[in-house]
Amino acid sequence: MLSALALARDIDAGKLKPAQVIDLCVKAIAAREADVQAFVSLDLDGARRCAERSAAALVRQPLRGLPIGVKDIIDTADLPTEYGSPIYNGHRPKTDAAIVSQVRRAGGLLLGKTVTTEFAYLQPPKTRNPHKAGHTPGGSSSGSAAAVAAGMVPIAIGSQTGGSVIRPAAFCGVAGFKPSYKLLPTVGVKCFSWHLDTLGFFAASVGDVAFAAAAVADRDLCVDAGEVAAPRVSLVRTHLWPEATDDMRAAVENAAKAASAAGARVEDIVLPPIMEDAFRAHGIIQDYEAYRAFAFEYDRHRERMSGILRTMLEKAASISADQYDEARRVSKRARQALADIMAATDVLLTPSAPGAAPDPSTTGSPVFNKLWTLMGNPCVSVPGLRDAFGLPLGVQIVGRFGRDRAALAAASFMERALARLTR
Amino acid sequence: MLSALALARDIDAGKLKPAQVIDLCVKAIAAREADVQAFVSLDLDGARRCAERSAAALVRQPLRGLPIGVKDIIDTADLPTEYGSPIYNGHRPKTDAAIVSQVRRAGGLLLGKTVTTEFAYLQPPKTRNPHKAGHTPGGSSSGSAAAVAAGMVPIAIGSQTGGSVIRPAAFCGVAGFKPSYKLLPTVGVKCFSWHLDTLGFFAASVGDVAFAAAAVADRDLCVDAGEVAAPRVSLVRTHLWPEATDDMRAAVENAAKAASAAGARVEDIVLPPIMEDAFRAHGIIQDYEAYRAFAFEYDRHRERMSGILRTMLEKAASISADQYDEARRVSKRARQALADIMAATDVLLTPSAPGAAPDPSTTGSPVFNKLWTLMGNPCVSVPGLRDAFGLPLGVQIVGRFGRDRAALAAASFMERALARLTR
Lengths: 423, 423
Fold this sequence. Notes:
2 copies of one chain form a homodimer.
Chain A: H1 4-12, H2 18-36, E1 39-42, H3 44-53, H4 55-58, E2 67-71, H5 98-105, E3 109-114, H6 142-149, E4 155-160, H7 166-172, E5 175-178, E6 198-203, H8 206-217, E7 232-236, H9 246-261, E8 265-269, H10 274-293, H11 295-301, H12 307-316, H13 321-342, E9 347-351, H14 370-375, E10 379-386, E11 392-399, H15 404-422
Parallel strand pairs in A: 2-3, 2-4, 7-8, 7-9
Antiparallel strand pairs in A: 1-3, 4-6, 5-6, 5-10, 9-11, 10-11
Helix pairs in contact in A: 2-3, 6-7, 9-15, 10-12, 10-13
């Protein structure tokens, strides 16, 4: 994989030029893309031209001219944006999404658009898991996770409404970071659910996603300088623990032991029943809003939607305003309860997904992600572990709302602890 | 003016057909539009065709085939959408905004796009106040307010980020309703500030805006059936009271007396200092987000922006993430404080604007609206009063967050009390 941080350091040291980074990507794409199919479109020539022409200015900016992959539910004026749906074949937005402009302002180059599932829902995409072709890369940010895992780009942007950043990051063995709700603007991102949609980052390691997020958000989020203080970690199994595979349960418990051995205070905690209610509220809020967010497509073009999406929207039509309002009230109470719980800890530790990547007939289950998306807390999928068949497993660090840097720091601590474990 | 409720009742009684309502609009447009200039585009033939062809189905739907004007920052696939900016000359979105689909689902017909100020900011528009040509209709939903006031359409949709629904409603002497934050989806609405942007309605009276909102939002918001219980009303002058004209102060105080005479419990309240902090936080949040929401336009086309917008964005570039985060924390604390205050009352009574509509060199001041937009509470501008020169004055009812029906009921109560006062 290409480490964004390592590339940035080499650029700072004068050992590497932005155009040479593009060349590294081009080489990896030539070697892997035919099998992995992570991209919907590429602008290698454009990125290379820009890297050459503006090298002097780019290397002084936070992203140093590094290339970025952008999920194809995010509007770009210079490349087609099809939202993974035939309804938008050849669609070219007039305007870049805010996040794309933020990437450019930070000195990043748009390398290409990465595969999204249809409107970021559950229909499996063409992308394959770079670790093993018979497995899904996860969804819905399938191409973003796979492109980073295959070393084709150092940073990719995705989005999460259920579990679309943390789950594919875990399946592909890369770091994934879903920031606090609304830390990043979703202006120009195809909306699925306005209470849930959250942009996120993929990169080789936790330090790399923190570097990318810090640069794009223009915030103090970097965690690569010096030692990280040992966090207080709470292992939370939730009522979904039986849905995790034996390998995943062992991975989380081993991660807890590794963190403890590295000096972290680790304890078990049990969430109050309101959190189970909130887990169920997620689906009501998501589907009620999707029925409105996709009203135009559903009302005019439903014959060009996948069965899985159409069926969900059909059912969603009957969710009442009262049910939706009650789900939002539950969510609000749960957020308060979670804030109270987390006053006594730094982060929660929980699975990123039920296990390793399943076969490509699904994109896997977001069951371990939905609650945290609804709560809005920052989440990091920490790579480094594998199951019995050598497939990547991710463990998830959930931080306090608005404390994104602390979440990343704890995830980085965990990543180093896991490295000692597997060494 | 055309009362949506009265038209709907006539349709229900078989006395009026949807196509005849279109004819009423066509007639008013022929008489007034050349002077008022409320519309950017019209689809009179399309609306008429649809009203004739689908009459039987339309009259059974909540909006009964009534025509609607839609502010031109809201995407429409069938009519151009230019956001009031030359950057988007001739722009035709691929998709309707969610609110437009909701109008159609409720049996409303799109009559035309109404004038917005440039990107819903402060640059004065071409639209004139239907009551007196030498005065602004207010902004930024200038055309929506003016079109309703001139009787050219019974319902219009606008949006508010500072004071863009309540202020033009007051200046034009119509009812304006800004629902609770996120009651209506802003999917497909050009974003100015994602923490503030709120869609709203204009119609002839409070009962009419409630009818429109109930139909479009598919919620129990109607307040036209029977008597409304007398609300507890708190007159709140805020620290901005000195900015109101003598006429406006008298209007608010007379409204309080009228409500009291009609049986309401009216008392004065003073807001805690945190609300003043929140008032200032509004500008920081709005401008920080606008610098990101308009990144593409500012970075690539700033020469085609008005001076007033460009200058704001130039300044906004230097607002730090820390300042923004602090403003959000202030806002959160103020919301809690306001909820506590409002536990003992039903609604607040306060000016809709500093006074009547000023001359058209500005769109007037949103100073009496910004705080409530940030707080997210439902607001209603109640028409019925006039200043010494016969220009309309609006008084504002602010309800509890999420209690939109109660806010509309109290506003309706106030409207009737004012009618008795001016009779």
